[in-house]
Specification:
Distance between the termini: 33 Å
Number of helices: 2
Strand content: 35-45%
Largest sheet: 5 strands, antiparallel
Strand order of the largest sheet: 1-6-5-4-3
Order of helices and strands: HEEEEEEEEEEHEEEEEEEEEE
Number of domains: 1
Structural class: mainly beta
Helix content: under 10%
Shape: globular
Length: 238
């Protein structure tokens, strides 16, 4: 679609050069999950790509790209708008900077509104101009809180509510993992605020989350550093 962007040699200079950044401490390994830590003290908002090849995450205001499972990162900042998701259309990757729906109810929450695009897997970015809006804009609704496997099974972020006080209509909202078919629950090794989920081409589940939490609701507290965590299932979802 936009392969001409590959030859735009000055593009990197106009948007700020990417640089390598490494995380200081490795994240723990688990029997069912690979884990990758964000390279800055923010939650991971969304993810796209493939852990075995090129993986791209956003912490809302920065985009990070890794080809070695988070050992080193390249970063770029194509926008000061909050990035809540990604969309791939043909050979082009788009940032999505608006939300539709809510993560805390039973409906589907979407990432919408493309603002920048990359034709080289997130290495460089260009502004998606108003005059370029085509059918892509009308189709730009990527679910954030649910995924569907090739077999038709639906998985969604599991939500739990705790009323502020008995009888209160207001409540603290907790994310408790990923709910599968027939109410089955896929739990994470630690508690987190989950922002979005994603499936790669091998049907592996990716969970974009905050740093580990040692308290939620009125007792909200991080366990230590605030770098978000990405979980990737070692097995494909059925």
């Amino acid at each position: 679609m936009m392969r001409h962007a590959r030859t735009a040699s000055l593009l990197l200079l106009s948007l700020g050069a990417c640089h390598q950044k490494a995380t200081d401490q490795p994240t723990p390994e688990y029997a069912d999950w690979y884990t990758i830590k964000a390279p800055e003290a923010r939650a991971i908002e969304a993810v796209t790509g493939d852990i075995d090849h090129t993986l791209i995450i956003t912490t809302r205001y920065n985009i990070y790209r890794t080809t070695d499972r988070g050992k080193t990162w390249q970063t770029s900042q194509p926008s000061n708008l909050g990035i809540v998701g990604f969309m791939t259309h043909r050979d082009t990757l788009f940032t999505l900077t608006a939300g539709l729906g809510s993560l805390v109810d039973s409906t589907t929450a979407y990432a919408t509104h493309p603002t920048h695009y990359s034709a080289d897997q997130g290495l460089t970015w260009q502004r998606y101009k108003f005059t370029q809006r085509t059918a892509v804009f009308a189709q730009a609704r990527v679910p954030r809180n649910r995924v569907r496997t090739s077999s038709g099974a639906i998985y969604r972020i599991a939500i739990e509510r705790e009323p502020f006080r008995p009888g209160s209509s207001s409540a603290y909202i907790y994310t408790r993992g990923v709910q599968g078919p027939a109410g089955s629950l896929i739990s994470l090794p630690q508690e987190h605020e989950i922002n979005s989920i994603y499936l790669d081409s091998k049907a592996r589940l990716y969970v974009a989350a905050s740093a580990p939490l040692c308290g939620q609701g009125k007792n909200f507290a991080f366990c230590g550093e605030q770098n978000g965590v990405l979980y990737v299932s070692k097995k494909a979802l059925p």
